[in-house]
Amino acid sequence: MNTKTIWSDTVKMPAFPPLSGDVRVHTAIIGGGIAGLLTAWFLKQQGISALVLEADRLCAGQTGRTTAKITSQHDLIYADLINRLGEDSAGQYAQANEAAVAEYARIIDRGRIRCDFTPCEAYLYSRTEASVLMQEAEAARKLGIAAAFTRDSELPFPIAGALRFSGQARFHPLKFLRAVAEDLDVREHTRVLAVEDDRIQAEGGTVTAEHIVFACHYPFVNVPGWYFARMHQERSYVLALQSAWLPRQVHLGVDGDGLSLREAEGLLLLGGGSHRTGENPEGGRYEALRAAARTLFPGSREVGCWSAQDCVTVDRIPCIGSYARSQPRWYVATGFAKWGMTSAMVSARILSGMIAGGVPDWAEVFSPQRPVLSQDNMKPLMDEAGHALRNLARVTPAPRCTHLGCETVWNPDTESWDCPCHGSRFDRKGRLLDGPAQKKCDIKV
Ligand SMILES: Cc1cc2nc3c(=O)[nH]c(=O)nc-3n(C[C@H](O)[C@H](O)[C@H](O)COP(=O)(O)OP(=O)(O)OC[C@H]3O[C@@H](n4cnc5c(N)ncnc54)[C@H](O)[C@@H]3O)c2cc1C
Fold it and tell me: In 161-285, where do the E strands start and end?
């Protein structure tokens, strides 16, 4: 069940024809979500016309189901990054994402793009514990972010404390991307089936390209790259509420419930219920959100609900850069960990820089070739491998995923068969909903 969102309800995206025949281009970009479109847009500013190949319609993937907060406040991350990587690398991460927020403001202002872009503050809040937010405030400040711990909050319920980042924003993602896509070269309904060196085999024809960007959310070529071994996917749920209290700022809870709050189109977007994709056999995620809405916002009325998922790497840092050493002209943007608005802007700047010249100073921390086999990451890497092996070994009548053959699990909330290994999803008829799988699966149950 892929439900409509308030974004797609309020915007009609431009339509593009499918690929037909064989073409040769400078750069091909696989995926027409925010990462692919922004990369194509940056290349165009540098005089390179890239061809975007989209399996479905533009923004039909996760971008169409985001909550679109534009912020460098990526949950609790900076104290952890300093601790694991040191101040230099953590500083690159902070700088890249702060620059991304500023870049949105610049592009939207210059292009006079009407996309409800609203500067605001971003808050992390806790209802139980303040100390972790104080530590995070200190870490973020050390890295140059305008961060402060506070006990003041606009939230209509009591909190123990909050962490404020100034100079952040929110917008309507599809209004923005409609404008971005306008002058780009795009082929919709064109799934890429295989990639070999400089040749892309797609539905409708082939594309030969000097440079190939994988902006397809989950990079589906398993070898080289091995992305399936170093990330998993997490799914979350959103309610759109009418007649609810409306926040001026954007908020995210750091306690167990992890509620996300922002205003859009005069509605309150209430998000939460996060779990590893493929691990929701009991369901009840929407119900839990509805219960929270009844308690926190009595009198509010649900007018929409949807869910989405994102890739999370073992070290929680996106992989943006060269796909693999053996394919120097393949590039990747993935692992945005539910912070894809700024991460996509970071990707567009790094990848357009690698292709056209001018890689930003802060690119290194995102390199997919960074050493992930450090002691810190050993456990999550082993967990990923263990997870996959357990689900490969299970034998029940549930359908098998067409990516690497793991057994899927029924998710009653989304009415889909979800793969607990790498997060592919299929509807009740076996039709593909989300990758890395690229083919439908057989349903025998
Ligand atoms: C519930 C939720 C809320 C979120 N809220 C926020 C937020 O407030 N702020 C924030 O910064 N981030 C947020 N995120 C994260 C953000 O939405 C994502 O990181 C981002 O949209 C991912 O963009 P993308 O371009 O990488 O992927 P997508 O938007 O999924 O685009 C990839 C595209 O590639 C296409 N594709 C796949 N395979 C192929 C193929 N073989 N050939 C051709 N095309 C292909 C797909 O059809 C798709 O359109 C949220 C995530 C979730 C789950």
Answer: 161-170, 185-187, 192-196, 199-202, 205-214, 231-242, 250-253, 260-264, 267-276
Best residue for ligand 1 mutational test, from 67, 123, 343, 414 (most atoms within 8 Å of Cβ): 67
CATH number (3.40.50.720, 2.102.10.10, 4.10.480.10, 3.90.640.10) of 375-434 reads: 2.102.10.10
CATH number attached to the domain at 6-67+175-229+316-366: 3.50.50.60
Query: Residues of CATH 3.50.50.60 domain(s) within the chain?
Result: 6-67+175-229+316-366
- Evaluate whether 172 touches 13 at the Cβ level (below 8 Å): no
Spatial contact of 160 and 126, defined as CB atoms under 8 Å apart: yes
What is the atom index within ligand 1 of the atom nearest the CA of 216? Answer: 34
Alpha carbon 199 to chain centroid distance?
27
Closest ligand 1 atom to Cα of 37: 25
118-170+232-313, which class in CATH? alpha beta
Residue 371: partners with Cβ closer than 8 Å, 6 or more residues away: none
Give per-residue pLDDT as tens, 153-184.
Answer: 999 999 999 999 999 999 999 999 999 999 99
pLDDT tens column, 373-410: 555 556 666 666 666 666 666 667 789 999 999 999 99
Q: Quickly list DSSP for 188-207.
A: -S--EEEEETTEEEETTEEE
The model's pTM is 0.96
Element holding 80 (H helix, E strand): helix 78-85
31 lines ligand 1 (CB under 6 A): yes
Question: Of the candidates 420, 397, 394, 422, which has an alpha carbon nearest to the alpha carbon of residue 408?
Answer: 420
